[in-house]
Amino acid sequence: xxxxxxxxxEAMVGSPHDLVVLDRETDTWQRRPWPEVHGIAESIAAYLLxxxxxxxxxxVGEPTVELIAAIQGSWLAGSGVSILPRPxxxxxxxxxxxxxxxxxxxxxxTTVFSYGATLQLLQDAGSPLAVCDIADAARTxxxxxxxxxxxxxxxxxxxxxxxxxxxxxxxxxxxxxxNNILSVSQRLSLGHNDVGCSWLPIYHDMGLAMxxxxxxxxxxxxxxxxxxFSAAPLRWAEWLSESRATLTAGPNFGYSVLGRFAxxxxxxxxxxxxxxxNGGEPxxxxxxxxFAIGMSRFGFDAGAMAPSYGxxxxxxxVTIPAPGEGLRIDIPDAADTARRYxxxxxxxxxxxxxxxxxxxxxxxxxxxxxxxxxxxxxxxxGDTPADAGxxxxxxPTGDIGYLVDGALVICGRLKEIITIAGRNIFPTExxxxxxxxxxxxxxxxxxxxxxxxxxxxxxxxxxxxxxxxQDTTRTAVIRRVVSVCGVTPADVVLMSPGSLPxxxxxxxxxxxxxxxxxxxx
Length: 521
Hints:
Keywords: Ligase. Residues 14-381 form the AMP-dependent synthetase/ligase domain. Helix content is 32%, strand content 26%. The chain is built from 15 helices and 28 strands.
């Protein structure tokens, strides 16, 4: 079997701990020992090898024991895996099913696993792909004579976020995925005694990395469906307490929600939590502080916070701070203390970063972040493979940042910089300020620059509104941006909750918002 499947087999079969999954229908935790989960994976591998349908495997659905086992089962069978989301709120079911299956087919998937109502939607779409019930595959008899392929070219076909453009598919080899898992485990000193707890979607690179890293450590892993978190975000604290989790991960808005409503949390114990990864979107230092302070009365150690940086093209993690460092902040301009950036740690073993000077920074202190190393993708699907190893080609991330004693700081995206009167402004500077205004939904603000007829850049702000007086909130937003950021928005558009376009992983699509605002003017 390939090295990734072999390493996971050793970890799962040798673990004395469990995979614990929350069943949303019964709201109970389903516990299965890791060796038993691997047995299910072997059944799924036997199912795939018996069908003799070469190609990648597609997975759709909230996490179940069988769906998690299917990831390893696919790798045992020598197949790559692509995981796509269930229907998003407001989507037309049949159109979603057709689009999902078309997406799978376009990237080389031949077999799709799902279950329940989602399976029925996919089967009703009439695709030429084999759409199968994961429960049937999990019951396939195994044989001692079954031979697993010795190697594989692809482990994961990972969709990129698409927050600033058209999503693409990163092709990740088994060796790259294994290198990233081991690098994260080494940086965080993970072992059998660690307990992971996650609600992140497994179709997102951070959610999948959380699953794989916890599995490789040999400790317990508690998984809750993303929908369960969305319906009641404060339950995250309850899950961390009940599981006695030592490791968790989430985007900034998740921590901000818990911090903002910490007074509604009770009877939890977060004293075991030693690593809380914050990644997937810009880190709001004020929001992290609010979480750390709010959760401290439940035993949370602020040193556990780990603001990190990663991307699908590098499997996931690029930089992570060492355990215990907590949130470290850099203020690049002493005269502008409102601009605070989180240090995102040093590169994980096997990865390198460099800063390439950018025309957007005349001081030369910041520039575009480029990365390379042992966790990098082979290529984007359809492109010529590139050498991105330790001595290979540098990959331009499109992010603007700088280094502080080797630790990475990210300022924003190159494509999203707003230039007003010769001054470069990153959207996050505006968005974090606006998110603190009463009536604005935190984590639901987009700042963009557009061009007027005189070719002068203008600042537009769109925010989801949860208050009662729109005019009062709009005025407060303008005053707040002027006083803190020193620029005046040309317009502030307040929208109903859920109106701002997002990627499937929940990231705001700033360029799409800009197109909508420009079209409306």
